[in-house]
Amino acid sequence: MEPNLPFVEPSSTLSPVQLVGANGAFWAAGTGVLFMDELGEMSLRTLEVLRKPMEAQWSRDAAQVPQTIGATNPCPCGYHGHQSIECTCGSARLSRYQERFSGPFLDRFQMGLVLGREADSVAVPWDEMVFKLRMAQERQRARGPWLGNSGIPLESLIQCAEITREAMEVLNGWHKKSGLGLRALHHAMRLARTAADWGQRAKVSEQDAWLSISLHASQFRFTSKSGPWGLARSSST
Ligand SMILES: [Zn+2]
Which domains can be identified in the chain, with CATH numbers? Predict the structure, then answer.
């Protein structure tokens, strides 16, 4: 949507220094997009050093850092959770793979999605999609000089997000049960605000709050033998 901004796709074999060092790929992305494909192939050390610069996305330095997007398979063979093809990884290998994505690392992402192997066909015409996106961006720009809802300074979040009391109760209830830190609640508030912008609603509704929760990256957290993808899978079984 912003053709003038850089789009950087670093190799998963980059060392921590090549990724986040002074001249690393992270900074080369400027205020554009850093797309990290095959996150599961990156070394544990690289994943962990990413935490600090990613944190800057929601700090006062947010204007200097890229939007980070990561993608990975659910397991080394790629079929964990697949409806018809069996995963051949074995539990030890699967655990080793999934445990690499620590809670603190996943907390750096504002949202997480499970993508189906077969494209889920949601027939939204491209023109309509772009129109809705532009309208949502307009709303966000009118809110302040920062880059989108993820850039709203923390001290302005409550005032800018305009979350109804009912929606805030939904978010607070989820946050209390989740056992996650305050960062998770702030991510959910921002995402709920974006959902409302997408629907052209001045105030964040309960529906926006529920959508935001369902997209929270904590659903990928490794909590049991069902794996970090357990929640997403249980919703489809
Ligand atoms: Zn597998």
Answer: 7-117 (no CATH), 126-217 (1.10.8)
